[in-house]
Amino acid sequence: MNWTICIKNTGFEASLEARKLYPVEEDAKAKAVGMIRVIDESGESYLYPAEMFAPISIQNSLEGQLLAA
Fold it and tell me: At CA 54, angle to CA 57 and CA 2, rounded to 5?
C-alpha cells in the first residue's frame, strides 16, 4: 500500500488533518487530472488535489502497525 502525508488541508478541514498520514488507493484516472485518492477521516476513499499531499515511504513493519491502528 502507498502512503501520503497531508501538507495542506485548506477547504477540507473536516475531512483531512494537516501533517497526518493517509493510505492511498491507486487511481490512474485521478492521477491523470492531478488528483489523488486517499482514505480520509470518514474511512472512505475520496479524491483530493494531489498538491495537498506529499508521498512518503513506510517500512513494512511500520505499515502493519499503521493498518492495525
Answer: 40
Q: Record the cell numbers describing residue 4, joined without a space.
A: 501520503
Number of domains forming the structure of the chain = 1
| Cell matching residue 64 | 502493519
DSSP letter string, 26-69: --HHHHHTTEEEEE-TTSSEEEEEGGGEEEE---HHHHHHHHH-
Per-residue pLDDT of the chain (69 residues; tens, 9 = 90+): 799 999 999 999 999 999 999 999 999 999 999 999 999 989 999 999 999 999 998 877 787 787 777
Asked if residues 50 and 31 have their Cβ atoms less than 8 Å apart, the reply is: yes
pTM: 0.84
Q: Which domain holds residue 42?
A: 2-68
